[in-house]
């Protein structure tokens, strides 16, 4: 049984991030197929996922195609109740679905002025009043969920749920554009930035290195505010390992970390590790042996 997920550029496609997190965070296996946004390559991708017009799009094992993130979330929750995508408590579950739906339909000023860009962070983006109003609404509903159901967890409903996946790109926008939010809201943002699954997604986006010029903003830049990655560099072989930690195939591409050289089966496997070694459990387990 194989799910196939169509996604766009990892650094820029906020909806793709949501769709991927619905699998990655809940232990569901999926095969991803990507296309470059705003190019013929994206049209090529979607031709294989008709009738979907946007990403993410999901092809079920029986061949049925589902578009729209909420439909994907509900389908996965129905097919995999053991994954617990939504909260168990009925009131919490209703609130989580309401918040996810509002995310899909609302916050147009924030989404329009601050498109997701995981390759940059700005010192000051001078947000308009409309963006500040969206942020105030987001803070209000985040606080309501965490006060009622968050317990001592950093997540909205006590553990990571689909609602957190839907708000992950909002957290990245706050990080990229250094948007003004309360300390409590920033704690929630930082939980996303430190989350290993999100760090893997961002590292893969940096490995893709797909730059969308229209996303560039004329603001002074600052370092990415998430956890600093371990300092790795591209290297020549030979490596200590003969097989790639991800595929098990023979190694052809290499990086150096802490004076030791490690090999991978292709440049993408190497580069996604290069950009955040700690985010990859298979790699960290290999170098700890």
Automatic annotation (TrEMBL):
Residues 3-84 form the GST N-terminal domain. It comes from Defluviimonas salinarum. Gene3D superfamilies: 1.20.1050.10, Glutaredoxin (3.40.30.10). It comes from the Bacteria. SUPFAM superfamilies: GST C-terminal domain-like (SSF47616), Thioredoxin-like (SSF52833). This is Glutathione S-transferase. InterPro entries: Glutathione-S-Trfase_C_sf, Glutathione_S-Trfase_N, Thioredoxin-like_sf.
């Amino acid at each position: 049984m194989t799910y196939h997920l169509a996604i766009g550029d990892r650094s820029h496609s906020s909806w793709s991030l949501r769709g991927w997190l619905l699998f990655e965070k809940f232990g569901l296996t999926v095969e991803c197929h990507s296309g470059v946004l705003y190019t013929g390559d994206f049209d090529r991708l979607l031709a294989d996922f008709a009738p979907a017009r946007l990403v993410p799009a999901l092809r079920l094992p029986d061949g049925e195609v589902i578009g729209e993130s909420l439909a994907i979330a509900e389908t996965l929750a129905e097919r995999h109740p053991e994954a617990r995508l939504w909260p168990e408590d009925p009131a919490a579950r209703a609130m989580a679905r309401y918040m996810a739906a509002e995310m899909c339909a609302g916050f147009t000023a924030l989404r329009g002025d601050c498109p997701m860009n995981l390759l940059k962070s700005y010192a000051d983006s001078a947000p308009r009043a409309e963006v500040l109003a969206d942020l105030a609404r987001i803070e209000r509903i985040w606080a309501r969920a965490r006060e009622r159901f968050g317990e001592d967890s950093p997540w909205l409903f006590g553990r990571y749920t689909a609602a957190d996946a839907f708000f992950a790109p909002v957290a990245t926008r706050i990080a990229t554009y250094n948007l003004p939010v309360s300390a409590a809201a920033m704690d929630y943002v930082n939980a996303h930035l430190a989350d290993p699954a999100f760090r893997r997604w961002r590292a893969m986006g940096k490995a893709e290195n797909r730059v969308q010029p229209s996303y560039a903003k004329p603001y002074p830049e600052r370092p990415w505010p998430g956890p600093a990655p371990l300092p790795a560099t591209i290297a020549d072989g030979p490596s200590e390992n003969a097989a790639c930690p991800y595929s098990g195939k023979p190694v052809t591409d290499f990086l150096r970390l802490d004076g030791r050289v490690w090999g991978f089966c292709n440049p993408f496997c190497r580069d996604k590790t290069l950009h955040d070694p700690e985010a990859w459990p298979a790699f960290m387990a290999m170098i700890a042996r």
